[in-house]
Amino acid sequence: MNRQIRVVTIVGSLRRDSFTRRVVDVLKELAPAALSFELAPIGSLPAYNEDDDTDAPPTAWQTFRRQVSSGDAVLFATPEYNRSMPGVLKNAIDVGSRPYGASAWIGKPAAVISVSPGAIGGFGANHHLRQCLTFLDMPVMQQPEAYIAGVGSLIDEQGRITSPGTAEFLKRYIDAFEQWIRRLQSQRSQS
User: In sequence order, what E strands does 13-167 have?
Assistant: First the structure.
């Protein structure tokens, strides 16, 4: 029997009731039983400054790095701010990537979903984030791509998806992520 897969979830929106967080909650409900999700909070991470990355870096950095390192995979969910990812998400990526040579991200299977009330579904944020993940040596699921446009009309205040087509897409997306993780784990175990 396959073991449980621990997915560290990074939500790029700090708003308590954000659309991005709601979509992540829906993904967790739709996910195969083999996936367990653990939110890695990023709002209280001090801004990355190499001067502070000493033998005793900020406790929040240490906790975040351990959490990412201990996960099997990472799900990134982001809104789009000014055609890119939020600064708090970029800071989390920087914190996890240091100190040089000890990145918590290396080799972690990843998936990206972007969420926007606008028409292009956070396309800019999605691709800027993917560019960072490529540099960090994270194998990112390529298909299906996930740009959730017009999210304000797709999810209600209780966090339920109101569009059957969107629910079906999110189910296919999270199932594909499990398959992606398992394929990479299998490749690693054979090498």
Answer: 35-39, 73-78, 110-115, 147-148
Residues 122 and 148 sit within 8 Å (Cβ to Cβ):
yes
Domain 5-190, CATH homologous superfamily name and number: Flavodoxin domain (3.40.50.360)
The C-alpha atoms of residue 57 and residue 49 are separated, in whole angstroms, by: 10
User: Quick one: angle between helices 164-190 and 19-30, nearest 10?
Assistant: 70
Rounded to an integer, what distance in angstroms lies between the CA atom of residue 34 and that of residue 24?
A: 16
pLDDT digits (tens, 9 = 90+) for 41-92: 999 999 999 999 999 999 999 999 999 999 999 999 999 999 999 999 999 9
Tens-digit pLDDT profile for residues 87-144: 999 999 999 999 999 999 999 999 999 999 988 889 999 999 999 999 999 999 999 9
Question: Could you tell me if 19 and 155 are in contact, meaning their C-beta atoms sit under 8 angstroms apart?
Answer: yes
